[in-house]
Amino acid sequence: MEGWRKPFVAAGRQTQFLSAFFRNLFIRHFEWNEAIRQCFIIGYKSFSLVGITGFILGFVLTLQSAPTMKAFGAESFVPSMVAISVIREVGPVIIALICAGKVASSIGAELGSMKVSEQIDAMEVSGANPIQYLVVTRILACVLMVPILTLMADTLALLGGWVASNISERMSFTIYFYKAFSSLSFTDLMPAVLKTIFFGFAIGFVGCYKGYTSDRGTESVGIAANSAVVNASLWIIVLDAIAVQLTSIFAYNT
Amino acid sequence: MEAINIDTAKQTGKMQIDAEVVIEIRNMKKSFGDKVILSDINMDLHRGENLVILGKSGQGKSVNIKLMVGLLKQDKGDIKVFGKEVKELSTKDLKELRIRVGFLFQSAALYDSMTVRQNLSFPLTRVLRLKDKADIQHRIEEMLESVGLLDAIDKMPSDLSGGMRKRIGLARTLILKPEIMLYDEPTTGLDPITSKEISTLIIAMQKKYKISSVIITHDIACAKITADRVAVMNDGVFVAEGTYEELEASKDDLVQHFFK
């Protein structure tokens, strides 16, 4: 295929895959058991990784910013600064990138190896619906679990921030969280949660697309996993840039 | 060597073959990019017969059977299964056709995240939409007993040998009671004893469930056991056709290569 045609063909195939997802989303016999199993694999099995990342994120952010804030005599603003930056931006993006690395790659590799070993063809040729069973369930699990993981990581980041604050000077749990939450508003939390839904969709969609459409051969499984991470990460950054622009216009009125 | 039409019903001692044609292929062509895989395929499969397609690797044998179930689409020509043109079927009709046509993949293609029981219940619950657990259990056990692997019911595919995987793959396909079976290299990668067991099992299943089969292979021992009719494929066309005994006696060099 000529070079200039490739991006258009790829865009066309992704659009077809996207429309197949939406067509199968609303048909009868939804695979509830598989969707719940995927939520367990994607969500529950990422709790420790995401939790530790979130905690250290808040911890490090506080340790790094506290000396500078102290120089300006504004160390009492550290909880607010950490809360706003974690909830609005750092938490959702970092956790989504972590999920892209863990979840998109595993979906890409799993579906890629199923494709290579003809399991997807076997499903299709038996009269079953592989898109409904393999793709819809995984994308929906990502859409549901990435926001939940992000909220959990945000909470642990604030806890990490409080622990770090207590290293330099004692600050009670109540005061820290009062200061952190008093600086937050609905317009901080809601757009952040909304964008994590889109991040979750990007992770699930890219992982499934790369795995489901991988070529034959074992090498293609590695390629599918790798390109799933790269593309999902890129999508997260692009979606975040769009989300920041939209929230600036509609939520923050700046 | 000229391309020939594979369209004559033969009566053999193995099983009563009906005159009814269940798969009819006419002037079919298939290419991938510039590479022509199948250049002019004409073929009939009659109800109740086992048609073995012999050929070297890379001759388009697997592509030929994938076209019969709509996994691929031909560039030109007609493929009619049960009298219906496959590439014109709607999604719903194609699903119905695939229930009637079973496909055993070369690798058996067992779902490796599921146990044998789950592999067999998958088509029952997702395709036939059965809900009665006792009925599902009964069908699974009956089918595993038919292939002689009832003991493996709770094993994972990774715990099974190559021959066992093929048997389970066959059981998973036959559990939908197909009228036609398409076997893609059913004995490849197996030792001669297990190959013979699988070939014998194919015959046993044909008799038990009255199935018509297309068997892709380059294993001459498998062809000898299973074939009512043998067709030899070379460079994307059929070049010879007949019973096993007729082709064995052929003077043609290419045909003789398989029978030596």
Q: Gist?
A:
The complex is a heterodimer of chains A (254) and B (260). With 254 residues, chain A is mainly alpha-helical. Chain A is built from nine helices and no strands.
Q: What does this 3D model show about the protein?
A:
The complex is a heterodimer of chains A (254) and B (260). Chain A is an all-alpha fold and 254 residues long. Chain A is built from 9 helices and no strands. In chain A, helix 4 packs parallel to helix 8 (186-212). The termini of chain A are far apart. By secondary structure, chain B is an alpha/beta fold. Chain B has a domain at 21-110 and 181-259: P-loop containing nucleotide triphosphate hydrolases (Rossmann fold, 3-Layer(aba) Sandwich). In chain B, helix 5 (162-174) packs parallel to helix 6 (192-209) and helix 6 runs parallel beside helix 7 (220-226). The longest helix of chain B has 18 residues, at 192-209. The two termini of chain B are 20 Å apart. At the A-B interface, helix 5 of A face helix 2, helix 3 and helix 5 of B.
- What is the level-2 CATH architecture name of one domain in chain B? 3-Layer(aba) Sandwich
Summarize model confidence as the mean pLDDT of chain B.
88
Calculate the terminal CA-CA distance of chain A, rounded to whole Å: 47 Å
Give the mean pLDDT of chain A: 92
**What structural category characterises the helix and strand content of chain A?**
mainly alpha
Helix content of chain A: over 70%
Number of helices of chain B: 9
What coarse outline of chain A follows from CA principal-axis ratios?
A: elongated
What's the structural blueprint in terms of helices and strands?
The complex is a heterodimer of chains A (254) and B (260).
Chain A: H1 6-25, H2 32-42, H3 47-71, H4 78-116, H5 119-125, H6 130-168, H7 173-182, H8 186-212, H9 219-250
Helix pairs in contact in A: 1-6, 2-6, 3-4, 3-6, 4-6, 4-7, 4-8, 4-9, 6-8, 8-9
Chain B: E1 21-32, E2 35-46, E3 50-55, H1 61-68, E4 76-81, E5 84-85, H2 91-100, E6 101-104, H3 116-126, H4 133-146, H5 162-174, E7 180-184, H6 192-209, E8 212-217, H7 220-226, E9 229-234, E10 237-242, H8 244-248, H9 253-259
Parallel strand pairs in B: 3-8, 3-9, 6-7, 7-8
Antiparallel strand pairs in B: 1-2, 1-4, 4-5, 9-10
Helix pairs in contact in B: 3-5, 4-5, 5-6, 6-7
